[in-house]
Write a structure and sequence with these properties.
Elements: E1 11-14, H1 22-36, H2 40-47, H3 52-63, E2 67-70
Parallel strand pairs: 1-2
Helix pairs in contact: 1-2, 1-3
Length: 71
């Protein structure tokens, strides 16, 4: 099935592709922390305190209003 891409102002991240790499997600989080003036050290510590699923959930917790992630 072919679907048209929906127009959105949110950042879209395909977790099944190269964007889903943990280091890429950490980089995205760091950039978003700088843009939103969120404390990077706090976000980084929480993102790296568990497994990959924790990393993704933490990214969603802090920036879920800005990003859309696809599995």
């Amino acid at each position: 099935m072919i679907l048209e891409k929906q127009k959105t102002n949110k950042i879209t991240i395909d977790l099944t592709g190269p964007q889903g790499n943990a280091f890429v997600l950490l980089g995205i989080a760091r950039d978003l922390c700088l843009k939103t003036k969120t404390d990077w050290d706090t976000v980084h510590a929480e993102m790296t305190s568990g497994d990959y699923e924790n990393l993704v959930q933490t990214l969603d917790k802090y920036f879920g209003e800005i990003i859309i992630m696809y599995k």
